[in-house]
Design a protein that fits this description.
By secondary structure, this protein is of the alpha/beta class. It has a domain of about 100 residues: Ribosomal Protein L13p, Chain: A (Alpha-Beta Complex), CATH 3.90.1180.10. The chain has six helices and six strands; from the N terminus they run E-H-E-H-E-E-H-H-H-E-E-H. Strands 5-2-1-6 form a four-stranded parallel sheet, with helices on one face. A two-stranded antiparallel sheet has the order 3-4. Helix 1 crosses helix 4. The radius of gyration is 23 Å and the shape is extended. The relative contact order is 0.18.
Length: about 180
């Protein structure tokens, strides 16, 4: 059996829609990046752009975990002395909520010409409406952690105390 290698002329692109409402930014960006690269399609070929179009709606309602709302800082620089601009996630989200998702996905794509071409197929909108209804995008759900069991760990001292209280078996009585 020969290895199947698709040509760029034979690629048929599909349209997908992701709703960012109450989705974690990183998980949403991974799903979008995989769709843009074509990694979830059976015809994936590394040297050929086999990705699909991705429409992300409700970008303003995406959530982040931990202290990233204040702690994550986006930096831009124009190569002029003293022109570095730092902006926290909270300020960027209030000013341009679409840019937060675009930057997260952009940093997950290949850093070459093909990656830039993939990013051009990402369409992000802060509201629920988008102008790509005619393409009939298929809605996809990004899985949440709701099915995972969250286990809280005891403080380090309590774990150490519990470890020392375990009974040790004599060496001769092991089965």
């Amino acid at each position: 059996m020969k290895t199947f290698m698709i040509r760029k002329e034979d690629v048929q692109r599909r349209w997908f829609e992701l709703d960012a409402t109450n989705q974690v930014l990183g998980k949403l960006a991974v799903k979008a990046a995989n769709l843009l690269m074509g990694k979830e399609s059976p015809i994936f070929t590394p040297g050929v752009d086999t990705g699909d179009f991705v429409v992300v709606t409700n970008a303003s309602l995406v959530k982040v975990t931990g202290n990233k709302e204040e702690g994550k800082i986006y930096r831009t620089h124009s190569a002029w002395v003293g022109s570095m601009v730092e902006e926290p996630l909270r300020a960027l989200r209030s000013r341009k909520p679409e840019k937060v998702i675009v930057l997260a996905v952009k940093r997950m794509l290949p850093k070459n010409n093909m990656g830039h071409h993939m990013l051009s197929r990402l369409k992000v909108y802060s509201g629920k409406e988008h102008p790509h209804v005619a393409q009939a995008p298929k809605r996809l759900e990004v899985p949440n952690r709701s099915g995972w069991k969250v286990v809280e760990r005891a403080p380090r001292k309590a774990r150490a105390a519990r470890k020392n209280t375990k009974k040790k078996e004599p060496a001769g009585k092991r089965a």
